[in-house]
Amino acid sequence: MFTASELHPHLASALEKTGFTGLGERYQGKVRDVYTQPDRNLRILIATDRQSAFDIQWCSIPLKGQVLNQISAWWFERIADIMPTQVLDIPDPNVTVAKKLRMVPIEIVVRGYLTGSSKTSAWMNYAAGVRDFCGVRLPNGMVKNEPFKSAILTPTTKGEDDELIDPPGIFAAKLATEAQWEEIADKALKLFARGQELASKRGLILVDTKYEMGVDEDGKLTIADEVHTPDSSRYWVAESYEQRFAAGQEPESLDKEFFRLWLREQGFEYGEKATWPSITDDVRLSLSAKYIDLYERITGKKFTLPPVGSTAKRIEKNLEKYRSSLLPAHCSLANKVPSHPSFHKKPGW
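The chain above was modelled as a monomer; its predicted structure follows.
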């Protein structure tokens, strides 16, 4: 695990955004800059170091983008037998070249434990008295960080402000048909089971996660975005979980829940900007170290620190083969979710 002093030189050169030309139209998401090339039927996903929490952009975390992309690449290889993946190429530690998909307009959240600190989390809703959670009936008497008897699905809508939704709500809004949701749910639970199985072999607990799926040009449901990263998932250290749970302490985490809890400790409240704290370099470095630690634990590989300030130039060089003078220069697009009719272009998928 790298020390704060080893990571400190990378603070000033964290990759906050890209502005490459000749790669297609540019769309800026919460973390990724996405360049689309419709003529090649592909998307170029560049993982930046931007850090969001509670649907707010806060700061940048050194080397986070490299960690996210490399963890996802590791996981994509290990779930390809469950469902098709988006991956066409990994030309750079920060980049995935992916199939162009018609995205399912739902975030598919799978939870194994009663935990969380966001307004859509299981624990925050349970603590507020909610027992019918996204169509799942939760028993009385549970405590924070307790495991569910089996994994549950708690989908949300996709947009600037994610909202909880249950299957009947999905069908009523025509976000998916019942048959489509059945396939989505089946694949999501199988992905999560694989994730928990492999994480346990590394001394980790995969607590919960979020999947995004889309449909490829052949009509096949495909896993997209990222898989089991510290941004899309919670991970706890298995060895200390039982003892800390019995003592009423928070589990040792290796994900951005550390950051969410820190924000709460500083007095953060959603609608009150006066409560939004400034992010210290110590917090940025702590989160960077946690992300790198997770990468090494999950993959069993040593994380490679790049030369300071080299990331953007390296990415541009490694994407040269995807640049074309015939493609339009990049332009920034607002966050978009495909309209519902585009998702239902043909029967089934």
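The first helix runs from residue 4 to 7.
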